[in-house]
Design brief:
The complex is a heterotrimer of chains A (338), B (145) and C (267). Helix content of chain B is 44%, strand content 16%. Chain B has helices spanning 17-26, 48-56, 77-95, 112-129, 133-140, and strands at residues 8-13, 35-40, 61-66, 102-106. Chain C has 2 domains: 2-122; 129-255, no CATH class. In chain C, α2 (76-87) packs across α3 and α5 (143-155) crosses α7 (191-205). Classes of the chains: A alpha+beta (338), B alpha/beta (145), C alpha/beta (267). Chains in contact: A-B, A-C, B-C. The complex binds iron/sulfur cluster (4 copies).
């Protein structure tokens, strides 16, 4: 679909949120609570933290929750009944005020859950998700979207992208059919405009390397000692994967209470030693450096081969969350000039 | 409406309290039947996580009991347990877990009558406190629904 | 800082140690843990009052395994962690060279374990006023409110276990959360699983935590989980008159006992 250009006043955005609520859609937006900004359910605009550069955690839990029931089971005297989770019961969700990198993060995540095997649950959630992002006018020292094919005004992954062009007005780009459906249902709120140059309203994020260059380099780096050097201070906590919008690894577990139980999937991380531990006791990724190598290879090599998609959108969340200040952009830059 | 009957789990050691409870039975002393006794080799083996598991599985009250100090079959199991309980009680209290619902006691193999009295008074106390809904809810909410 | 560098350089060039664990410049104005293997590298070493990471953690990681003697830039928290680890037979004196730094940031030179014990005793200990206030605020809540407070606080925990990975005292090769037959702690980060995880973590650190705060610093969602440990440190102090991280012959509160431990709560 060709992008449609519109204008949206902030008061109109406020009305839009209320209308979403009336239509039974759940709106999630960055909300500051106890000093931390993360995605939370909102019903009015004034709860939203528009200033936050990047929420602590990504928006991925909207389609890939921390813990998600897959099925439930119940044992009776001579039988076991199994019930799949009802994928039609998922709510319509709007992610509002996500950043272009958050939106872009849904693309590699979708690739993980839809290549070879199409994951029904994930796709059902994704289908009911509408992403209304807001371009970044500020960036910090951790942001590097421009080095991984993104930019502070990137439309990829968003259904509508808003760019603040004045204190009261957003320039709205209607990117997808889902976005258009919102426009069509709320024509009174959007005004016509011709295309607007967003650049003056966007943060300046310097490009340090290219994802393609990393991909190229990795061909010869599997055995390199660069991984040992880079991973020295990594404590193997896995926090990086948990906050990453593009990390899709999960574990599957059963939990029961008496005769009833559920099977769920929950987040996991390749940073853990246990992640690859075999029953035999053998661990193919014994050292932290091998796990760090996996993280980079998965995002910049394997995912490109299998899914034609890089697994990093340059949001910098992993670096912000890392207790040991493992700055992924810095490490990638080092790889690119290795 | 029938009266609320608390679900009670008793974690007891093999050598003293379990034998004591046995004596209660053989002496034909009557006591509340809503207690489920779980036997352990020693109070030193009674992990505090078992207590939280009991609450999570629907217990409204817990009794933990073993040999009197200096009577431990393994010499010091109950001394270690005593410290652990002190710390655990403090942690529970800080986290808002109702410590009135966990009763600790020493019951020897000769104290059949004491065991009956401990269980009966615990039963009365737990009855007053009602079902431990807070913890039960915690363990069933969200994804089990 | 110059003095720290001088000592580190000398130790490295005399091959008394083969690596120094310290700090270097990190992202923007942050600092980060760094590992210096020769005297020239040491030029990059920095030390300032933002160097608060508990570096003792690294003594238990692979990177130190094959090194004969590791030097470590040790503020009071690091010193106390090393003493605690020594009391638990996790580090050996002949494999570590402690370069001590007082809480005011002054270099106190090389400390052997004996000197480290003396040094640790002279440094400020116990709860900071703001931590005590926090704990007292919670203690003042009615039972139910306290319960709900923690359930809510832990509800944002994603179970990444960064708190565990960054605590020097959490060194178990196989943590209880990884024991899956039976599954002690639910794998899921639902409210119940989170509560059980935090009860277990606090209990395992009772009387062993040295109040460094690294766990909370590492938490990606800023959960004040260190308050459970701090509260128990305080309790252990009051009740058993012992404190972790001050003596290499310390018997951890929960693996020792006396005949006169309080039992007024036992029927
Ligand atoms: S790897 Fe790091 S920078 Fe890249 S998308 Fe994930 S969290 Fe963001
Ligand atoms: S957050 Fe940092 S320390 Fe933790 S696993 Fe990731 S890179 Fe390693
Ligand atoms: S404060 Fe946290 S990281 Fe430090 S010793 Fe205690 S539990 Fe471990
Ligand atoms: S670091 Fe924080 S989020 Fe991770 S397991 Fe610990 S408390 Fe939970």
């Amino acid at each position: 679909m060709e992008i449609l250009n519109k204008l949206l006043d902030k008061t109109a955005l406020s009305t839009l949120i209320e209308r979403f609520g009336k239509a039974g859609k759940e709106v999630y937006a960055p909300v500051k609570e106890n000093g931390i900004t993360d995605f939370a359910k909102v019903d009015t605009i004034d709860k939203i933290d528009f200033e936050c550069i990047a929420t602590k955690q990504s928006a991925k839990s909207l389609v890939f929750p921390r813990v998600e029931k897959i099925l439930s089971f119940e044992k009776s005297y001579d039988d076991i009944s199994v019930k799949n989770v009802d994928i039609n019961a998922f709510p319509e969700v709007v992610a509002l005020g996500s950043r272009p990198c958050d939106a872009a993060g849904f693309i590699p995540l979708d690739a993980i859950f839809s290549t070879d095997h199409v994951d029904e649950i994930f796709n059902a959630r994704l289908k009911k998700l509408t992403v209304i992002s807001i371009s970044c006018k500020k960036a910090d020292e951790y942001c590097f979207c421009t080095s991984v094919n993104g930019n502070p005004g990137n439309t990829a992954g968003s259904d509508i992208l808003l760019t603040e062009i004045s204190d009261s007005t957003y320039f709205a780009e209607i990117v997808t059919e889902k976005g258009k459906a919102i426009l069509d249902a709320n024509t009174d709120l959007f005004k016509d405009t011709s295309a607007i140059d967003k650049t003056p309203h966007l943060a300046d994020v310097k490009q340090e390397f290219t994802a393609e260059a990393i991909n190229e380099k990795l061909n010869n780096l599997f055995e390199s000692d660069i991984w040992d050097k880079q991973a020295l201070r990594c404590v193997g906590c896995g926090a990086c994967a948990y906050v990453c919008p593009a990390c899709g690894c999960f574990d599957i577990q059963d939990e029961n209470k008496g005769n009833k139980g559920i099977r769920y999937r929950c987040w996991d991380s390749c940073g853990f030693g246990l992640f690859t531990l075999h029953t035999s006791g053998h661990n193919p990724r014994e050292k932290q450096s091998q796990r760090w190598r996996q993280r980079i290879f998965h995002k910049f090599s394997y995912q490109m081969v299998q899914q034609k998609q890089f697994g990093c959108v340059g949001c910098g969340r992993c670096s912000r969350a890392c207790p040991a200040d493992m700055n992924i952009a810095e490490h990638l830059k080092e790889i690119s000039i290795n | 409406m029938s009266e609320f009957e608390p679900k009670i789990v008793a974690f007891v050691c093999n050598w003293c309290t379990y034998a004591g409870a046995d004596l209660t039975g053989t002496s034909r002393i009557k006591y509340s039947s809503n207690v489920r006794i779980i036997r352990f080799p020693c109070t030193g083996r009674i992990d505090y996580m078992l207590l939280t598991k009991a609450f999570a599985s629907g217990a409204d009250g817990i009794i933990v009991s073993g040999c009197h100090p200096n009577d431990c079959h393994y010499t010091s199991g109950n001394f270690h347990a005593r410290r652990r309980w002190m710390v655990f009680r403090r942690l529970c209290d800080f986290m808002g877990i109702d410590t009135r619902r966990i009763i600790f006691s020493w019951v020897s193999a000769a104290e059949g009558a004491k065991w009956a009295q401990i269980v009966n008074s615990a039963n009365e106390e737990f009855k007053k406190l009602g079902p431990y809904e807070n913890y039960h809810k915690l363990s069933t909410q969200e994804i089990f629904e | 800082m110059e003095e720290i560098k001088k000592i580190a350089k000398q130790l490295l060039s005399e091959n008394k140690i083969q690596m120094v664990i310290g700090f270097e410049k990190g992202t923007a104005n942050k600092v980060r843990p760094a590992f210096f293997k020769n005297a020239d590298d040491v030029e990059k070493l920095i030390y300032n009052d933002t160097c608060i990471h508990n570096l003792a953690l690294y003594l238990k990681k692979d990177i130190c395994h094959h090194i004969a003697n590791v030097g470590i830039i040790a503020n009071p928290n690091v010193v106390r962690s090393i003493i605690q680890l020594a009391s638990e037979n996790q580090v050996k004196e002949e494999k570590i060279t402690i370069i001590g730094i007082s809480y005011e940031g002054k270099c106190v030179g090389i400390l052997d374990f004996k000197a480290a014990e003396e040094f640790a005793k002279t440094q400020p200990k116990g709860l900071k006023p703001e931590d005590r206030a926090f704990i007292e605020k919670i203690q003042a809540m009615p039972l139910e409110e306290r319960f709900n407070y923690w359930v809510e606080t832990f509800s944002t925990c994603v179970k990444c276990y960064a708190c565990r990975a960054s605590c020097p005292m959490c060194y178990c090769g196989k943590c209880n959360v990884e024991t899956n037959n039976p599954q002690w702690i639910p794998v899921a980060s639902h409210k119940y699983g989170n509560m059980e995880w935090h009860i277990m973590r606090a209990m395992h650190l009772a009387g062993r935590c040295i109040n460094c705060g690294e766990c909370t610093r590492a938490c990606p969602v800023d959960i004040p989980l260190n308050m459970l440990s701090y509260m128990l440190t305080d309790f252990v102090m009051d009740e058993f008159h012992t404190e972790a991280g001050l003596s290499t012959t310390y018997a951890p509160a929960l693996s020792s006992y006396t005949n006169v431990d309080k039992e007024n709560f036992i029927k």
